[in-house]
From TrEMBL:
Organism encoding this protein: Patella caerulea
Residue ranges constituting the Major facilitator superfamily (MFS) profile domain according to the UniProt record: 10-448
Entry membrane topology: Multi-pass membrane protein
Main location (coarse class): membrane
Designated name of the protein: Major facilitator superfamily (MFS) profile domain-containing protein
Localization (cell): Membrane
UniProt-recorded Gene Ontology molecular function terms: monocarboxylic acid transmembrane transporter activity
Claim: Membrane is one of the keywords in the record: yes
Lineage: Eukaryota, Metazoa, Spiralia, Lophotrochozoa, Mollusca
Record keywords, A-Z: Membrane, Transmembrane, Transmembrane helix
Highest taxon of source: Eukaryota
Transmembrane regions: 6-31, 43-64, 76-94, 101-117, 137-157, 164-183, 268-292, 304-327, 333-353, 360-381, 393-413, 425-445
GO annotations of cellular component type: membrane
Length: 522
């Protein structure tokens, strides 16, 4: 079974970590009314609390990604869980809103990022064939957290006041340390090839027909009179994020690798901009939907219920999006764009069609569509960058999420500062989501018009059978030593295909030799 028992444990742990993180950070809008009454301040000042928190929470992804490379997923999550708890614990005793910017906005937000990203990435590293489903299930924790969080917080405020509820949430946040302790790195992967002995004396040929199997290894069909060999191929290595020595060996610096492999990828830059736009609208909903409902004459408890339905739709959408991302016949980029546009339409309809029933329906649909977007998020990141730069790509995408999450509530709060009406902010957020949907369509259009500039996909499914140089026998005996020429990624750079009929000298332009001990199986 792909992933094994520990793969299931990782998914459950990631689910619970995201449940706690998003259940608290995504429901901060419930406190806006309480802060306005207690501190006698403006809606704009209060909006900065959630803006800074969500901006730091989602925007410090590269820092969390670097720390994962330098240390481990488990250590980073443990530190993040502690910071999140402390940031909430001191809030009841803070004398003013500006102090909340620091403790809840910065400290809790950064702690949430350190908790969320490692669990999110690790859930995908345990799986290959079912990666989309695994990450979709793990991401479902964020949707369920937003579902339960508003109702739970509203109940705690009513029973224990807003200060007492924050102390309880701080204790709940400490449970991230429990689930973070269960995170452990995935086992290393190997590539298995068959070496066929040629009838020509002193010559042997490696034929690599890389076909994916359920166990994660790659093998070729049965060949008579062959030998089985596992090779460590650096050019196709699996990144071990728990070992800093590997980082030092294969890259001169983290920033250099990030710029070379991620930030110069045009498709990824388009994807980055798209994430800014749709997170702009999502953050407005999380920060101000409950307050908008109160402005429309809905009670505080019912307003929390509306935000809960957004979370319920988000939870279901994450699972549905994860399932759909595993269907190869669906164009993931196109589906992602349509979901962006539909979520923007729902966001606009929440304001232009008033009424409690209508607000419930459109809020649920908005949560459903954005949840499906989240279910596709990692799958599209992996499709654009590949496994090697997957973790770094997720970290950079979180910067885009943070920019949008910070800007959305600030703009909505500024628009409402004069009139006090939040409707204009929601309409602007919906327009941004729609624009984001059209922006990501530039990726397939670009590939359509620039076919000669598409990047070479070196995934195992797309590497056809190719032939390497001859194996040179160095010594004889019961365990003969063979020198196996292998091909580095540089050999197939610049979009050049591997041709079976290509001269061997061209294939060995940047190759290296590896000595391998074989034992003939008679």
């Amino acid at each position: 079974m792909e992933g094994g028992v520990w793969g299931i444990v990782i998914i459950i742990s990631a689910f619970m970590i995201q449940f706690i993180a998003f259940g608290i950070n995504g429901s901060i809008g419930i406190y806006n009314v309480e802060f306005l009454e207690h501190y006698d301040t403006t809606a704009f000042d209060v909006s900065l609390i959630s803006s800074i928190n969500l901006g730091i929470f989602l925007g410090t992804g590269p820092i969390a990604s670097y720390l994962m490379d330098r240390y481990s997923h488990r250590k980073v999550v443990l530190v993040g869980g502690f910071m999140s708890s402390v940031g909430i614990l001191v809030m009841p005793w803070l004398p003013g809103i500006p102090y909340m910017y620091l403790f809840y906005g910065v400290i809790n937000g950064f702690g949430g990022s350190l908790s969320y990203l490692p669990s999110h990435v690790l859930s995908g590293l345990y799986y290959d064939k079912y990666q989309g489903l695994a990450t979709g299930l793990a991401t479902g924790g964020s949707g369920l957290g937003i579902t339960v969080g508003p109702i739970l917080i509203a109940y705690l405020i009513e029973v224990y006041t807003w200060k007492g509820s924050l102390l309880i949430l701080s204790g709940l946040s400490f449970n991230v340390l429990v689930f973070g302790a269960l995170l452990r790195p995935p086992p290393p992967r190997t590539i298995t090839v068959i070496i066929e002995k040629s009838n020509v004396p002193g010559d042997a040929v490696i034929k690599n027909q890389l076909k994916k199997e359920e166990n994660g290894n790659t093998v070729v069909p049965d060949i008579d009179n062959n030998l089985t060999l596992s090779l460590d191929i650096p050019s196709l290595k699996t990144k071990n994020m728990n070992n800093p020595e590997n980082v030092q060996r294969y890259q001169k610096s983290y920033l250099h690798k990030l710029f070379r492999n991620v930030l110069t990828n045009v498709d990824f830059v388009i994807y980055f901009v798209n994430n800014i736009f749709w997170n702009f609208g999502l953050a407005i909903v999380l920060a101000f939907l409950a307050e908008l409902c109160v402005q429309q004459g809905i009670s505080k408890i019912d307003s929390a219920l509306v935000l809960t339905l957004v979370g319920l739709g988000n939870f279901l959408g994450c699972i549905i999006g994860g399932v759909l991302s595993n269907i190869q016949r669906l164009n993931g980029i196109f589906v992602f764009a349509v979901l962006n546009i539909l979520s923007g339409v729902c966001l606009i309809l929440i304001t232009i069609i008033p009424g409690y029933t209508e607000t419930i329906i459109f809020s649920f649909l908005f949560g459903l569509f954005t949840g499906m977007v989240l279910g596709y998020l990692l799958a599209i990141t992996g499709e654009i960058l590949g496994v090697e730069d997957f973790g770094d790509g997720v970290g950079v995408i979180m910067i885009a999420n943070g920019i949008g999450a910070f800007a959305g509530p600030v703009v909505a709060g500024h628009l409402a500062a004069g009139s006090g009406d939040l409707s204009n902010g929601f309409i602007v957020g919906g327009i941004f989501c729609i624009i984001g949907g059209f922006i990501i369509l530039l990726i397939p259009f670009r590939k359509c018009f620039l076919k000669n500039e598409t990047d070479l996909d070196i995934s195992k499914e797309k590497i056809e059978e190719f032939q390497m140089g001859p194996i040179k026998e160095v010594s004889s005996g019961p365990k003969p030593t063979l020198v196996v020429p292998t091909i580095t990624v540089d050999d197939v750079s610049d979009g050049k295909d591997i041709d079976d009929d290509a001269p061997q000298s061209s294939l060995r332009k940047n190759s290296f030799f590896k000595q391998v001990n074989l034992e003939d199986e008679q």
